[in-house]
Amino acid sequence: MKDVAVLRSLVGVKFKSLRRLLKERDRRYEDRFKGQEQALSLLAQQTKADKAQANEWRGALADKDSRFVTREAFSAVLDRVTALETYRTSEVSESKGTAKFFGWIVAGASLLVVLVTLYSKLG
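Above: the chain's sequence. Below: its structure in C-alpha cell form.
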C-alpha cells in the first residue's frame, strides 16, 4: 500500500505540474492572441489612414488634371492662331501694295506739280 500511496503522490505531483504547465501555455497563447488582435487593429487603423491619404492625393491629381488644356482645345486654339496669322499676312501684303500704289500716285502728282511750275516759269 505504501507503493500505491507513493505512486498517487507522484502522479498527483505530475498532474499538478502538468496543469501548471498547461495553464502557463494557455496564458501564453492568450497573450499571443491578444497581441495579434492589437496588431490587426493597428493595421486596420493604418490602412484606413492610408486610404484617406490616397483619396486625398487622387483628388489633388484630379484637380490638377482638370486645369490642364485638352488636346482638342489646344488644337482648336492652334487652328485659330494659324488662321489669324494667315489673315494678318494677307492684310500686311495688301497694305504694302496699297502703300506702294499711293506712293506712286503722290510721286506722280509731285512730278506733275514740278513740271507745271517749270513750264510756267520757263514758258
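The longest helix spans residues 2-66.
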